[in-house]
Amino acid sequence: MKRVLMRYILIVVAVLLTQGSVWGKSKKHDDDKSKDAKQENNDNKKNDKKHDETPSKTAGGNHFIAGQCTWFVAEKVKENWGIWIPWSGNAGTWYDHAKDAKFKVGSKPAKSSIIVFKPIPGKSPERGGVGHVAWVKNVKGDQVSIEEMNFEKQNERSVRMVSAHDDLIKGYIYEK
Fold it and tell me: Where is region (Disordered) located (predicted)?
């Protein structure tokens, strides 16, 4: 009888250990983590005008992936417009998200605006398959000077000139 009881106890302990509830991996714990992550994500999406410091890669506010073009432009927007980008998504979706968020959008380049490039069908995400965004530094005639990240080299900032009439340009997002 003792052996049967001992085996039963061992089986129960083994089941509990494999389910994770003994070591804090219960469903309730996962639900709490999920709620915390959702709250943090919501907090990061708010435009916090009181937040004056430039965020680090891990600071709240900029919810885009560090080193990507979207992250870089979100930093430029905070620095120049004093707000965080309120939407998320790949670069190619920014123009429509900006329209939905009641930002001014258009087809004319302007200094201190966001240039949005269309996604290139058949290309990998690293080569423009999800679009691209950059910060407009200056405009001279039909030449647009842009500052960007993750275009020439992975995770690196670069500056280049583009034609205002480039077919890959979806449009521009202007300060509210």
Answer: 24-61
> Could you tell me which of 172, 121, 125, 118 has the C-alpha nearest to residue 144?
172
d(CA 83, CA 48) in angstroms, rounded, equals 7
Cβ–Cβ contacts within 10 Å for residue 123, how many?
11
Tokens read off for 173? 């997002």
Q: 3-state class of 147 per DSSP?
A: strand
Enumerate domains of the chain plus CATH numbers.
2-45 (no CATH), 69-174 (3.90.1720.10)
Contact 154, 88 (CB under 8 A): no
How do residues 2-45 score in pLDDT, each as one tens digit? 665 566 565 655 555 445 433 333 444 444 444 444 444 444 43
- What's the Cα-to-Cα distance from 11 to each of 6, 17, 21, rounded to whole Å? 9, 10, 15
CA distances from 37 to 45, 56, 146 (A): 12, 19, 34
CA dihedral of 151, 137, 55, 129, whole degrees rounded to 10: -30
